[in-house]
Amino acid sequence: MVLDASSVIRKVAKRILTSEDMVVVEAKNSAEAISMASAQMPDYIIVDAGMNEGQSEDLIRQLRALDRKKDAKIICCMTQVDLASMMRAKRAGADEFLLKPFDRKQLMSQFRTIRKAA
């Protein structure tokens, strides 16, 4: 699942990931993401860290609380390295971080890293 307010970011991520034979769904806001994850928890979730103050951390906590039997890997997507934000996201349950804008090489490198850690 790719959750980002930007349709461009969602489409770029989806295009890259589907070319790697992954099934990708898009969510444009937190409510949509929670609804989709409640129906079927994805294996990987890319969350836009640039949502309203604290909203991304709240969303990560809500996703983590949905279903402990299937622990999705959550990648927090940021526009800049901000250690305070990264620590808040990590405490909320984020597994990894990715900087925007990203390209195919960066996104796939992050997925290879997170798969190895699983």
From TrEMBL:
<dbReference type="InterPro" id="IPR011006">
    <property type="entry name" value="CheY-like_superfamily"/>
</dbReference>
<feature type="domain" description="Response regulatory">
    <location>
        <begin position="1"/>
        <end position="115"/>
    </location>
</feature>
<dbReference type="Pfam" id="PF00072">
    <property type="entry name" value="Response_reg"/>
</dbReference>
<keyword id="KW-0804">Transcription</keyword>
<feature type="modified residue" description="4-aspartylphosphate">
    <location>
        <position position="48"/>
    </location>
</feature>
<dbReference type="InterPro" id="IPR050595">
    <property type="entry name" value="Bact_response_regulator"/>
</dbReference>
<dbReference type="InterPro" id="IPR001789">
    <property type="entry name" value="Sig_transdc_resp-reg_receiver"/>
</dbReference>
<keyword id="KW-0597">Phosphoprotein</keyword>
<keyword id="KW-0805">Transcription regulation</keyword>
<protein>
    <submittedName>
        <fullName>Response regulator</fullName>
    </submittedName>
</protein>
